[in-house]
């Protein structure tokens, strides 16, 4: 009957029928993100670190929360009771799980099967990544349109039209995730050696913090590290993937295409270290290199890349040089490069979840503290270092739902911790975390920005502090940086 509303119980039944069908499809297709879910023995190790659980006060004191809602549901052939709207895609669950079960990956796979996020998908097809306008609601929602316009004019989207066309041709003929096999555990990563040359990635999120990108280039130059960039590089697919706009295989193909671009940017032979300011990018490359190290996976990827005349031949030639691994190799040089010690600046440090995901441990690595200490800033530690900041995905969701100022419970915990410790600034390794802190009214600097300030960079021209939403001036004025 036209126009008749479907009664709520029927709607629920239809929804369940669709989603249970999706689960059967996923299980049948053996999506790599679901493959080891049967190993979950409901130990509960993941639950205390899950922001989704923190955001659900009813789950406090319930160690089986995630296992019951996700892995046990799958084992019974039902849809997991947690969806992408609740999960912030931090992957703390995967990182901490002794059996390498990825609750976040399962939720991502279910969401991908049910519906990709059309708005982010469209941007990937139109622009090969997240262009500035992807972030526009985050500025207009808080009355910062002028800052957005100033950045959009001065820092235009960097990808070349030919690169966007190649990315589009890849994405328009999707490859099924089940075509790939991934190991159930992370391979041991080789310790990074001082590289002769690096490729510096343009990160989509750098639009919000151009100072982090400019500072990174300044530091590389000051350390005498030769770096290349390319306008043929597009988004790695990481951020859209975690926000539901790119599937598992889409992200892999986009990253693999970029590896081919990076390879072309250097003369043949030798190792190529891939750096950048974003740990989500680092994780995309580390994960892709792992998948591509298997011949069967590489054949599938190269078959798709052949459509655009590209190929990845030697994944072993690449290494991932995240700033938290790269710059600690140069601590003595950095100390000598410091012109203005930031003595008197009280800072907290927050290491991103995706950096820890890449390394397979929730332990807080020393890199960020060591680099911060080089500047002379005073670090105050906190138990909150082990937690997600609240996540970029949650930030986008709030704006999309018309509640930009409504902080999640985790956001409120993080902000209260900052205030209780009487800090001036938070220091982070991720432009996504930077965006989250900035949006909750916490002055924040990317580690590259902090280092550049100590090395005498112009706060406005290079570090672009005027582009931050929460003013850094009170903290920096106090220590004589204007
Ligand atoms: S997913 Fe892993 S950490 Fe979480 S309950 Fe299952 S086995 Fe334990
Ligand atoms: S990815 Fe993060 S938010 Fe999602 S279930 Fe895992 S720990 Fe929770």
TrEMBL record:
PROSITE patterns registered for this protein in UniProt: 4FE4S_FER_1 (PS00198), 4FE4S_FER_2 (PS51379)
Keywords assigned: 4Fe-4S, Iron, Iron-sulfur, Metal-binding, Oxidoreductase
Keyword Iron found: yes
Cofactor: [4Fe-4S] cluster
Pathway linked to the protein: Cofactor metabolism; coenzyme M-coenzyme B heterodisulfide reduction; coenzyme B and coenzyme M from coenzyme M-coenzyme B heterodisulfide: step 1/1
InterPro entries recorded: 4Fe4S_Fe-S-bd, 4Fe4S_Fe_S_CS, Cys_rich_dom, HdrB/HdrD_reductase
Residue ranges occupied by any 4Fe-4S ferredoxin-type domain in the UniProt entry: 30-60, 78-106
Gene Ontology MF terms: 4 iron, 4 sulfur cluster binding; oxidoreductase activity
Protein name (database record): Anaerobic glycerol-3-phosphate dehydrogenase subunit C
Organism ancestry: Archaea, Methanobacteriati, Methanobacteriota, Stenosarchaea group, Methanomicrobia
Gene name, Swiss-Prot/TrEMBL: glpC
């Amino acid at each position: 009957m036209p126009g008749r509303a479907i009664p709520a119980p029927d709607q629920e039944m239809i929804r369940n029928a669709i989603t249970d069908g999706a689960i059967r499809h996923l299980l049948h297709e053996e999506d790599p993100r679901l493959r080891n879910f049967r190993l979950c023995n409901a130990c509960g190790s993941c639950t205390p670190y899950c922001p989704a659980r923190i955001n659900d006060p009813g789950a406090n004191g319930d160690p089986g929360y995630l296992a019951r809602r996700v892995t046990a549901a799958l084992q019974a052939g039902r849809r997991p009771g947690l969806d992408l709207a609740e999960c912030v895609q931090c992957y703390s669950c995967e990182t901490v799980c002794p059996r390498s079960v990825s609750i976040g990956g399962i939720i991502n796979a279910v969401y991908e099967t049910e519906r990709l996020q059309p708005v982010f998908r469209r941007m990937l097809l139109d622009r090969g990544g997240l262009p500035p306008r992807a972030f526009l609601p985050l500025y207009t929602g808080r009355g910062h349109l002028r800052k957005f316009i100033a950045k959009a004019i001065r820092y235009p989207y960097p990808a070349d039209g030919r690169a966007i066309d190649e990315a589009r041709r890849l994405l328009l003929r999707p490859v099924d995730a089940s075509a790939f096999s991934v190991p159930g555990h992370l391979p041991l990563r080789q310790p990074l050696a001082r590289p002769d040359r690096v490729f510096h990635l343009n990160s989509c999120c750098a639009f919000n913090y151009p100072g982090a990108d400019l500072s990174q280039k300044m530091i590389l130059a000051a350390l005498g590290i030769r770096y290349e960039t390319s306008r043929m590089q597009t988004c790695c697919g990481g951020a859209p993937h975690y926000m539901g706009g790119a599937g598992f295989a889409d992200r892999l193909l986009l990253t693999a295409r970029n590896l081919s671009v990076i390879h072309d940017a250097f003369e043949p032979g030798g190792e190529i270290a891939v750096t950048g300011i974003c740990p989500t990018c680092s994780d995309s490359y580390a994960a892709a290199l792992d998948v591509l190290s298997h011949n069967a996976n590489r054949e599938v990827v190269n078959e798709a890349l052949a459509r655009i005349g590209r190929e990845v031949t030697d994944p072993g030639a690449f290494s991932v040089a995240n700033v938290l691994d790269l710059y600690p190799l140069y601590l003595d040089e950095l100390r000598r490069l410091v012109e203005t010690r930031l003595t008197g600046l009280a800072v907290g440090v927050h290491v991103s979840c995706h950096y820890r995901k890449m390394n397979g441990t929730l332990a807080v690595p020393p890199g960020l503290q060591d680099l911060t200490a080089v500047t002379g800033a005073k670090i105050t530690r906190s138990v909150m270092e082990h937690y997600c900041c609240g996540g970029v995905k949650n930030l986008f969701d709030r704006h999309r739902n018309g509640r930009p100022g409504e902080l999640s419970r985790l956001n409120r915990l993080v902000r209260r911790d900052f205030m209780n410790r009487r800090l001036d600034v938070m220091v982070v390794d991720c432009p996504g975390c930077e965006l989250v802190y900035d949006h909750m009214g916490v002055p924040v600097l990317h580690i590259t920005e902090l280092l550049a300030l100590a090395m005498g960079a112009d706060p406005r021209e290079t570090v672009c502090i005027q582009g931050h939403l929460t003013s850094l001036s009170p903290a920096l004025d106090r220590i004589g940086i204007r």
